[in-house]
Write a structure and sequence with these properties.
Number of helices: 9
CATH superfamily: Vaccinia Virus protein VP39
Strand order of the largest sheet: 3-2-1-4-5-7-6
Number of strands: 7
Strand content: 15-25%
Shape: globular
CATH class: Alpha Beta
CATH topology: Rossmann fold
Number of domains: 1
Distance between the termini: 46 Å
Largest sheet: 7 strands, mixed
Order of helices and strands: HHHHEHEHEEHEHHEE
CATH architecture: 3-Layer(aba) Sandwich
Length: about 220
């Protein structure tokens, strides 16, 4: 299959972490031209904007499912002094993210880590003040159970701004998992927003995502 043929059908059909690695190894170099630009995909920009609107002043943040680094790049334009790290399962996508630069031509990401977010996630740094994610919690990628893998990466009171594919949110029971985490005292009651994933004029215009906005309260025991 050539790069131009890759798209949503292939992305949604993956089932395992290894499937993800194989797909994005093929797609990384042309992901932005063949999908983001061609389909007028606004999701990374939208998540960066939501983060900027709702999260107060923070210093160190983590991009979950970094991909080619578009969300971090957009956020660096909105929060110029922000220290941003990233994690993704695909080394090829991270190689693209490593090239992203800020408005002042410095690198967007301080550090990038290859991680399987379906498992316990190793963190080499102090807990982050906020985590954000776009396009990772979707069909064939991360389900609601993976939220528990992310919370240990957050400092107490740290913010979580996570986009979730709308159908995925409903079919995989994200609302129930969030209720469980609230009941455990692990997070505050979340705010759930809806955003458009594509620009007007895109063939996929009308597709939406939910955005989970919450704060960590205490370690899960």
């Amino acid at each position: 299959m050539n790069d131009e043929a890759l798209g949503l059908d292939e992305a949604y059909s993956v089932k395992t972490p290894e499937d993800n690695k194989r797909l994005y190894a093929k797609w990384a170099a042309t992901y932005e031209s063949s999908f983001v630009d061609a389909k007028q995909y606004r999701y990374p920009k939208a998540i960066a904007q939501v983060f900027n609107d709702v999260v107060p002043s923070v210093t160190r943040v983590l991009d979950i499912g970094t991909g080619t680094g578009l969300t971090g790049m957009y956020l660096s334009h909105l929060r110029t002094g922000l220290v941003i790290d990233g994690m993704d399962i695909s080394p090829q996508m991270l190689a693209q993210a490593k090239l992203k630069v800020r408005a002042d031509n410095t690198l967007v990401y301080r550090a990038l880590y290859e991680r399987d977010l379906t498992r316990e996630v190793r963190n080499e740094n102090a807990p982050y003040e906020a985590l954000f994610s776009s396009g990772t919690f979707t069909h064939g990628h991360l389900g609601p159970e993976c939220l528990r893998n992310l919370l240990p990466l957050l400092a107490d009171g740290g913010w979580l701004v996570v986009g979730v594919n709308n159908e995925h949110f409903e079919s995989k029971g994200f609302a129930g998992e969030l209720e469980s985490l609230v009941a455990l005292g692990a997070i505050q009651t979340p705010e759930i927003m809806r955003i458009d994933v594509y620009e007007p004029g895109s063939v996929h215009y009308g597709d939406q995502a939910r955005v989970i906005i919450t704060q960590r309260q205490a370690p899960i025991t």
